[in-house]
Design a protein that fits this description.
- This protein is α/β, with parallel strands linked by helices and about 325 residues long.
- The chain is built from eleven helices and eleven strands.
- The strands form three sheets. Strands 6, 7, 8, 9, 10 and 11 form a six-stranded mixed sheet that branches. It has a three-stranded parallel sheet with strand order 4-1-5.
- α7 links the parallel β7 and β8.
- α4 packs across α10.
- The longest helix is centred in the last third of the chain and has 17 residues.
- The two termini are about 15 Å apart.
């Protein structure tokens, strides 16, 4: 969740040139990032109900129609993307989008909690039909390649891309210890969520460190656990997707716990993951997403959470690189 898997290494200046970080008032999210490489365009792939032709619901596999439910695997501890409010209700960007997509498809999206690094295997095991959890669309995930070893570990998944996000570093407020870039983390300790882009970036950067000053990396099941470690003084920095980092900075301790440092990097699309071989479901989700984009419902949801700059204008399949 957070961007969650290895993205191409990109110089910070590439994003800094056109993006600004802000957490005061409403959160802003980078709209940088290219979702076009390798991605299919979508405007003509399916027709929405507004055309009078086929609707997204018509594209849904019959067995899912009969059940009336789509089970969605999600790591529900990643505010503001998905989390539980004080009453225990699942809320956030993804649940709101899921509800809107469900209306288009004539089914209910049921979010089921799971640790982030088990969601793809959950798709393969058919515990879920979809995984929607701030999951970054990358070629490695599409092809079932382990991002670190580059070995084939599964069949891969298809993605319907629905958002764009970068990665940020944050520290305790008033104690940045000179950390501005990833290279400044050499010789320091970082707390991250396991299996995320932040985790992979930390491992990649540590390999570049010289003088024996590697990055000490502590990984946790959830981003909230990593935040707790930093808050308690057990780490020098934390890292997560920009909207998540910005939300933590704004809300943790009433805005007194953390601060963002440096610029966000590695802008890439979030995708709704679907196991390979489910082309009909993939096209139905794509059509439903295009329908809520066209109707304006998508923009309302994105604006509700203050992350308008991460919005997409069309749903693409496997647009990540």
């Amino acid at each position: 969740m957070t961007a969650r898997t290895t993205r191409r290494t990109a110089a910070t200046s590439r994003i800094a040139a056109v993006c600004a970080i802000a957490v005061a008032g409403t959160m802003l999210l980078t709209a940088c990032g290219d979702q076009t490489k390798g991605g299919s365009t979508t405007a003509d792939s399916t027709k929405s109900s507004s055309t009078g032709a086929s609707s997204p619901a018509d594209l849904l596999p019959q067995d899912i129609k009969a059940k009336g439910v789509i089970k969605v695997g999600s790591d529900i501890a990643y505010p503001p993307v998905e989390f539980k409010d004080k009453s225990g209700k699942v809320v956030g960007i993804d649940p709101d989008l899921g509800a809107a997509l469900g209306k288009e498809l004539g089914v209910k999206f049921e979010f089921e909690n799971g640790t982030f690094d088990t969601l793809v295997s959950g798709l393969r095991a058919k515990r879920y039909q979809l995984a929607m959890s701030a999951m970054t669309d990358t070629k490695d995930r599409q092809e079932g390649i382990d991002s670190e070893t580059k070995k084939k570990v599964g069949e891969g998944v298809d993605f319907v891309d629905y958002f764009t996000a970068g990665v940020s570093i944050y520290t305790k407020k008033g104690d940045d210890q000179g950390i501005k870039t990833w290279s400044d983390l050499c010789g320091k300790k970082i707390a991250v969520q396991r299996g995320t882009v932040s985790h992979d970036l930390a491992k990649a950067e540590s390999k570049k460190c010289t003088g024996g000053k590697k990055i000490a990396i502590e990984s946790y099941d959830t981003d909230l656990e990593a935040q707790t470690r930093l808050r308690s003084g057990g780490a020098d920095a934390g890292s997560s997707d920009f909207p998540v980092a910005a939300y933590a900075v704004k809300t943790s301790g009433g805005g007194k716990d953390f601060q963002l440092v440096g610029e966000q990097v590695e802008a890439a699309p979030y995708g709704i993951a679907i196991a390979k071989g489910n082309d009909q479901l993939t096209k139905a989700v794509q059509a439903a997403l295009n329908a809520i984009i066209k109707s304006g419902e998508y923009d309302k949801i994105i604006a509700k959470w203050g992350v308008e700059a991460g919005a997409v204008t069309e749903a693409k399949i496997n647009g990540g690189s």
